[in-house]
Structures are given as C-alpha cells and as structure tokens.
C-alpha cells in the first residue's frame, strides 16, 4: 500500500467500524466465554477512530451495528448508553450511517429505533420505499459513480419484530423448523444449518426485490456498489454461526449484478475476508468490543476509480480491493 502516495487522490474517503457494544460496566466474557469484552473501553476505541477520521477528512462513516450492548437493557441504561456513543460520533463533522444489529433490538423495539438517532436514512436524501413498511434499508450515492446500500438483516427475525406482528410469527415458525433447542440462541445439531439461531435474522422477499431493483439501476449507470449489513452473507467470510438466515438468497441477488464490488458486515467479532468467484469482496470487520485497550478496530477506506484501499487500524488489516 506504499504506492498509495503515487496515485491520483481518491474520489472520496469513508470510515468503517463495527460492534462497539458500549456499556458502562466492568469487562466481561463473550457468550461462549472464550473472548474478553471491554465494555467501557469501547468508547475510547471509538474516540481513537473519530479523531483519526477527522484527520483523514472522511466524507462519511458506516457504523455496522451493535453500537451498545444488550446488558444496558436490564440496567435501564439503554438511552444513556446510546446518548454517550452518539455524542462521541457527533464530535466528528462526517455523516454517520448506522446499520442495525441484534444488540440494537435487545435495547429498543423497532418503532423506537426508527424514531431514534440510529435511523440515519434521512441523511441519504433519497430515502427508501421500504421505510414506510418498517424495513430499515436505504441507499445513497456518496459520490458520482458510487452507491452505498444499507440492509436490514433483522427484517425477518424474532428479536427485530414485535411479537404481535405477522413477521414475528413467520420468523419464529421458520426458526423453530430449523432449530429444536429450547434455547434458540443455541445452534441446532450438526445436520442443520447453524445460522438458524435467535441472534441472527434474514431479509424479506420485499427487501431482496428492492435490492435487485437498486442494483439493476446501478448496473445501468455503471456505478460501483458497496453493500453494508450487520450480518455477513458469505460462509467463507465468517464463522457460519454468524450468517444471515437466508444468506444464499442474498448472495444470488448480489451475484447477478456487475455493479456490486464489496459487501461489508460485522457481527463476527473475529472478522473475516473472502473474495467470491465473481470478484466481490466480502469483508467481516473485527469487533471493537473484543479489542484490547492497547489496540484498535476501525478502518478508513480510500475509494479510487479502479479499486478501494482499506487502511486498517489495530486488529483490522490493510487490504487492496480491486473492482471485479
């Protein structure tokens, strides 16, 4: 990446960060008790990121979900924790686009989220037809010739839908068909798909059709599209337990459009990367929450006409992402 200096300046630059999971509590362990979680320090790591982004003059920031931890809920600290983290983001002049993850839904119901600062759709200017149907997905153009699409990976889910809704009923039925455990956060047996756990979700047919239309238009305009989701959709870019329920349906939409260059996700705190057979880069970002206080976990992406260059910090590696 030393050659970066010899190139023409980038078309634009954006910041990326995932799984901050801030809570004002002592350090703890993950669900499997194999990784340490640094709840308070995640705020400091976010501060490190926003300072660097300001120096790098990023045009916008993509926050890939799980901005605060589910532990806030039982302590009645959800609003306070969210205000603290949003306050940190607000210090930076760049627009922040928020993706929703499972921890957003542990803290707030969908209606509350839509009315909160975590609904960044208005910043897109274009909005989306889906928002009227309570699907939090939208797209915008950060610069001419480029398009960003934010997906709602909990559109079909048990945690992301109100219990009285038809989508909740459908999601629970789907989950129980694939997972017979009494604790639905425990993955089903070996023969089944491990993706069917309660902390994951999927994309409705309506959302997939909308994405297909957005990408068709982008193909026609010869744009370069990056898609953002809390849940990864390629089994080689993540631990399979972290995949979206219908990752295969999402993949087939992505694969049928030449405009797609990159798919960025969070959720799997160990991160991951895979370039699929169509040349699309699937990046799973390492999570802030499981990053040691003396390290970092954020990226800055320099977007050029022929490639993107991800400059990682701390646990996140540098990467050159050539367009397919």
TrEMBL record:
Any one GO molecular function term: ADP-ribose diphosphatase activity
Membership in a protein family: Belongs to the ADPRibase-Mn family.
Cofactors named for this entry: Mg(2+)
Protein name: Manganese-dependent ADP-ribose/CDP-alcohol diphosphatase
UniProt-listed Enzyme Commission number(s): 3.6.1.13, 3.6.1.16, 3.6.1.53
Subunit and partners: Monomer.
Chain ranges of the Calcineurin-like phosphoesterase domain: 14-270
Cross-referenced SUPFAM superfamilies: Metallo-dependent phosphatases (SSF56300)
Protein keywords: Hydrolase, Metal-binding, Zinc
């Amino acid at each position: 990446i030393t050659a970066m200096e010899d190139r023409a300046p980038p078309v634009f630059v954006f910041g990326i960060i995932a799984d901050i999971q801030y809570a004002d509590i002592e350090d703890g362990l993950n669900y499997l008790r194999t990784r340490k979680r640094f709840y308070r320090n995640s705020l400091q790591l976010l501060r490190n990121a926003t300072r660097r982004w300001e120096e790098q003059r990023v045009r916008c920031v993509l926050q890939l979900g799980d901005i605060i931890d589910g532990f806030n809920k039982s302590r009645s600290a959800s609003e306070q924790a969210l205000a603290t983290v949003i306050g940190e983001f607000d210090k930076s002049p760049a627009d922040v686009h928020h993706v929703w993850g499972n921890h957003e839904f542990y803290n707030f119901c969908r209606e509350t989220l839509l009315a909160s600062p975590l609904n960044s759709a208005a910043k897109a200017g274009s909005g989306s037809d889906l928002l009227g149907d309570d699907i939090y997905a939208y797209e915008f153009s950060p610069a001419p010739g480029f398009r960003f699409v934010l997906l709602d990976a909990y559109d079909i889910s048990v945690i992301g839908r109100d219990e009285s809704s038809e989508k909740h009923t459908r999601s629970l039925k789907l989950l129980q068909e694939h997972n017979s455990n009494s604790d639905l956060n425990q993955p089903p047996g070996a023969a089944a798909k491990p993706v069917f756990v309660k902390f994951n979700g999927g994309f409705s047919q309506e959302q997939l059709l909308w994405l297909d239309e957005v990408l068709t238009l982008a193909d026609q305009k010869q744009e370069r599209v990056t898609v953002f989701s809390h849940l990864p959709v390629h089994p080689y870019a993540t631990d399979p337990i972290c995949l979206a329920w219908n990752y295969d349906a999402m993949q087939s939409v992505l694969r049928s459009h030449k405009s797609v260059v990159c798919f960025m996700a969070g959720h799997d705190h160990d991160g991951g990367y895979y370039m699929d057979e169509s040349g699309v880069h699937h990046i799973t970002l390492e999570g802030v929450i499981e990053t040691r206080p003396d390290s970092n976990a954020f990226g800055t992406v320099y977007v050029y006409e022929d490639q993107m260059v991800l400059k990682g910090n701390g646990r996140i590696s540098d990467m050159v992402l050539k367009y397919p």
